Amino acid sequence: MKEKNAFIIIVALFLTFYFMPVGSDWLDNALLSGFALLHEYMTQHVLTCLVPAFFIAGGIAVFVKKQSVLKYLGGKAKPYVSYPIASVSGAILAVCSCTILPLFAGIYKRGAGLGPAIAFLYSGPAINVAAIFLTASVLGFKIGLARAIAAIFLAGLVGLTMAFLFREKTAKQEIALEEETQQKTSKTAITLFFASMVGILVVNGLQIDWTIKWGLMGFMALIAVIVVLLKFKTETRNNWLSETWSISKLLIPYLFIGVFIVGFIMPLIPEKLIIQWVGSNTIQANFLASVFGAFMYFSTLTEVPIMQALIAKGMNQGPALSLLLAGPSLSLPAMLVIRSILGNKKTIAYIAIVVIYSSIAGLIFGMI
Amino acid sequence: MKIQILGTGCPKCKQLEANVKKALEETGKKAEIEKVTDINKIIELGVMATPALVIDGKIVCSGRIPLTKEIKKWL
Fold first, then answer.
1. What stretches of A56-203 adopt beta strand conformation (E)?
2. CATH number for the domain including B55?
3. If you measure CA to CA, which chain B residue comes closest to A181?
4. Burial of A70 (0-12, 13-18, 19+ CB in 10 A)
5. Cα–Cα distance between A168 and A66 in angstroms, integer?
6. Is B61 considered catalytic here?
7. How large is the ipTM?
8. Which residues, in sequence order, are CB contacts of A360 under 8 Å at separation 6+?
9. Is B10 labeled as catalytic in the residue annotation?
10. Residue-level pLDDT at A174
11. Range of B56's domain?
12. Minimal-distance CA residue of chain B relative to A97
């Protein structure tokens, strides 16, 4: 099998380059645009936004234990506790869907039930530190903030709606939790550590003189480094670095390839079509954007360059937010896995609810 | 001895499998390795955080990738 695959790849590459319209204007433009967009990301977003965000995500993976969040999502949890916790916990726990899905299935079958499980399922991919800050850095502060707020809010709403539609009894069980390993790092150190790193991201978003900006960012980076060197145990430090590395390794290749592809096809997107379909903040435009987002598969973070291209081509802010809300949490592959846990009826309801609510949220944002 | 590796197939689960194989190799012990990728089965086994390692029906580790050194102790 392997030999055959290799052969197919070589033949495909051969045919691609054989028929490549070398020297034609559109190809030159597209290639140049692809590299230009990559250059833009390297110079403006990688060091100041992505790198700190990955370090934060690594820190979260080390210090925030999945078990401690699950405590609040057990069978006996009160709804006013479980819904808010489920809506925000996706933001801090998840980087890839492989962590989300088992937790989702567990909360659904053994814990707080359908509603909170759905809230968690939605919030996981829709809000994570890196995605929110990259959105703010590339697309602007306003839409980044709107994305974060709307995603948390929608998560709870989608969960409540699902729980209302399918009132079912769950076997109230307590989730079996593992013994937690004691963290030996002081609370002050952890707080200072996260505060200084989030500070870097926030300062980066401010519109201030660049010498002050870089000075402040350098200062905060220094605090983070000092805390890590003096207050963290060697083991914690190594865990943190290895988590950060594994997150980066997972996301960066897809992001860079995604950025290049988006840059490549950007000159080929017909501006007229975009303006005609999603150029204004109408119900149809928002709905179209949500449906498109729901079925397309975006690897984590690549939704940002895609939106950048579409907005540059004339997409309205409203439909843009609709797409950002429906896109990352729904995709064809995710739907298939969700179906195996929830069954057809609930899966269809979930997709419909997410699409409708995302459209409404986009519509409202477009009017503000 | 029966070793089950639980995970839906993300890179972390593959890393865990590699670590387990290395641990077996270094200790020279023999075991049957089963990979559980079906999410419903994973939940039935009582695991909420993948990757997880189950040895002879007992969950020894979940939610992180244990080092080869640690796995050797559990074998």
1. none
2. 3.40.30.10
3. B61
4. buried
5. 26
6. no
7. 0.71
8. A286
9. yes
10. 56
11. 2-74
12. B10
